[in-house]
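Is this the right way to post structure tokens for a design question? Let me know if I should format differently. Anyway, here goes:
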């Protein structure tokens, strides 16, 4: 099934973007804890790997799509000298958590948040040197259109970095992965977040999202070039990179 047809609330007739907004508003208070618990803290290493890819390219203006509670934006501010970061997300609840974290770290002058839909970004063409999106593209209502919108606001020669969860290709790893993601995570998620559906949606959307070369093909179809993928931790996470043609 296409990932766009996997919705947080299966019997809900609303558009996916509306359901995603409601889901993340509901789980925002528990989101950071669940991220650490689900990945045993490895998600921090994945984000660090993504940021290292940006060090040697222009990164004066960065757009972080599906910024959530701002973990990637904060890491970029800490590790990319001179970067001015704009984080956008559908969920005001997630952004509010992000604003508090940014203020506590004294980074409010360098990180700016706004509620926005990734399919209709409120920015001019060629606005950003780099665009990032961590764990967000599988929530897009239209994946191809989301990449086209990123391509539009990325400057010529600019770098796109996508971090996304993925299913491990190894038949030896996959049974343990399925047990963990399809049973343990939903159970803990229901207890911690109080949302009975959000952490069942997670493994369903991971299984459905295009992965590896298929994802690169969609990025190329949106006009992006030099598309590559980097598998991490037995393929449970994948970093995708691409550029906008000069």
């Amino acid at each position: 099934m296409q990932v766009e047809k996997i919705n947080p609330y299966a019997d809900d007739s609303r558009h996916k973007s509306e359901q995603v907004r409601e889901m993340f508003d509901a789980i925002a208070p528990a989101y950071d804890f669940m991220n650490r618990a689900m990945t045993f803290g490895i998600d921090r290493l994945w984000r660090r790997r993504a940021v290292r890819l940006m060090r040697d390219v222009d990164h004066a203006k960065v757009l972080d799509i599906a910024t959530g509670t701002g973990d990637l934006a904060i890491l970029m501010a800490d590790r990319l000298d001179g970067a001015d970061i704009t984080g956008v997300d559908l969920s005001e609840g997630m952004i509010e958590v992000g604003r508090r974290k940014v203020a506590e770290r004294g980074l409010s002058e360098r990180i700016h948040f706004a509620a926005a839909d990734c399919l209709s970004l409120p920015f001019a063409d060629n606005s950003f040197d780099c665009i990032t999106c961590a764990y967000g593209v599988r929530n897009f209502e239209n994946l191809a259109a989301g990449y086209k919108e990123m391509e539009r606001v990325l400057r010529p020669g600019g770098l796109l970095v996508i971090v996304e969860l993925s299913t491990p290709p190894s038949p030896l790893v996959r049974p343990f992965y399925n047990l963990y993601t399809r049973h343990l995570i939903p159970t803990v998620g229901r207890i911690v977040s109080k949302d009975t559906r959000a952490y069942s949606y997670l493994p369903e959307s991971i299984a459905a999202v295009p992965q590896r070369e298929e994802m690169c093909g969609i990025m190329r179809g949106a006009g992006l070039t030099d598309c590559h993928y980097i598998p991490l931790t037995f393929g449970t996470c994948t970093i995708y990179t691409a550029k906008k043609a000069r």
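Format looks fine. Someone answered above. Worth noting: The radius of gyration is 17 Å. The chain has a mean pLDDT of 92.
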